[in-house]
Give the backbone structure.
Amino acid sequence: MSPLLRRACCAVLLSAAGMAAAAPLAFVTNQGADSVSVIDLDDGSTRATITVGAEPAGVAVDRRLRRVFVTSVKSRELTVIDADRLSVETALVSGEGPLGIAADSAGGRVYVADWYGAAVRVHDARTLGFRGQYRTGTTPAGLALTPDGAHLLVCNRDQNNLSVINTADGLTISRIAVGTAPFGVTVSADGRQAYVANVQSGDVSLIDLEGLQVTSTIAVGTAPYALAHDPLRQRLFVTNQQDGTVSVIDLIELRELTRITVGDYPEGIAIRARARRVYVANGFSNSLSVIDADSLRVVATFATGDGSRAFGQFILE
């Protein structure tokens, strides 16, 4: 073998080894510990514990920039974590009470719901420069973007509705009445539907994003908080805070299939659909439950920090 070919083969092997070593990571905000636990989802080990602002809750990953954005309501901070170095890059004050957060990798923006300011603040994803803000209803909580980044959905908890905002100009094109105290929201992979968890009415609103109207309301457990959509199995997973369960909704039959017992006070939830895994952050048991998306059983439990919330998209792979 020639030296040139030998070097090329070595480079390929090293590259393949590096790709194999890049495990999917969960960035779990720990409200009671002012930290983020970085969990290796291949083996459940804690790769790092990163100190952030006071009482962190919201989290969003940017796969393109390899950054993780974290909101801390008490200290009013937006923190940026370098996902490769597993360390804080920078932090700044963002509004009166930053909570829900969404990252638009293609558009280069980060959206932050200001719980006390009745607005969504817009930051540049690279520089964190402030680009302006969109007015919302009172106590904006969960955020979700449509797949094309053209529309931002905002749960207005105390007004029992969902704002649909055009991200190009910041104008609200609709406010859709949902259940009582909407908190978490997610969008289907095809961008046609949105799903809202209504904490106080104990149900989930299914919304047609073309007609901008609720098409179904499905009862779940007590205090539903956040949701994850499984496009491969046409299911919706919903955390029920006060039940210690996750409701599984069949989106074809429009009914609750089952409830899965997880840890105590589950909040944040995320899915790796092709890996057949759903991950749930449990605030009172300081753990991450792993659910098999086919058998609908808990197959592992990973330790996290105190008061785990992970409200948002917290998995990077």
About this structure: The two ends are 36 Å apart (CA to CA).
